[in-house]
Design a protein that fits this description.
Layout (H helix, E strand, L loop, with lengths): L8 E5 L1 H14 L12 E5 L27 E6 L5 H8 L6 E5 L10 H21 L1
Parallel strand pairs: 1-2, 2-3, 3-4
């Protein structure tokens, strides 16, 4: 991130989504990403919360979700994803998560028109936030 950044947001899938979800809280506590600008948004696909029912919590991430993560987040949850329960539980860790449900499993989904519109609205929100910071 130092060499190729700065980056405004993070997109993660599966284990990468779980890590991405924890990073804003870890950054706020000063235990990760201390030399880069604040993470401004997340896109989480098939993610889970560290410390959830399937995964332990790395020591550095122990308090990543307390308080709730305030940065905007977009979450993709698959109806047949083996991680659906953990992805749903992760939503409770965010202030105002935007959620897209899709009929597939543990995958990057193909989006229908409704989901595409939700993504565009989320991107619009991020653009407005970024414009206000300039």
């Amino acid at each position: 991130m130092l060499k190729n950044g700065p980056f405004d947001g993070i997109l993660g899938f599966s284990q990468g989504a779980s890590l991405a979800a924890a990073l804003p809280g870890m950054q706020a506590q000063g235990v990760a990403l201390t030399k880069v600008p604040k993470i401004k948004f997340l896109i989480i696909t098939s993610g889970a919360k560290f410390g959830g029912s399937k995964f332990g919590s790395p020591k550095l991430a122990a308090n990543a979700f307390s308080p709730l993560v305030p940065c905007p987040s977009l979450h993709f949850l698959g109806e047949t994803d083996f991680m659906k329960e953990e992805g749903t539980a992760l939503l409770e860790s965010f202030v105002d998560p935007v959620v897209i449900h899709h009929p597939c499993g543990h995958t990057i989904p193909r989006l229908d028109e409704k989901a595409q519109e939700t993504v565009l609205q989320f991107i619009g929100k991020i653009n407005r936030i970024m414009s206000s910071l300039e």
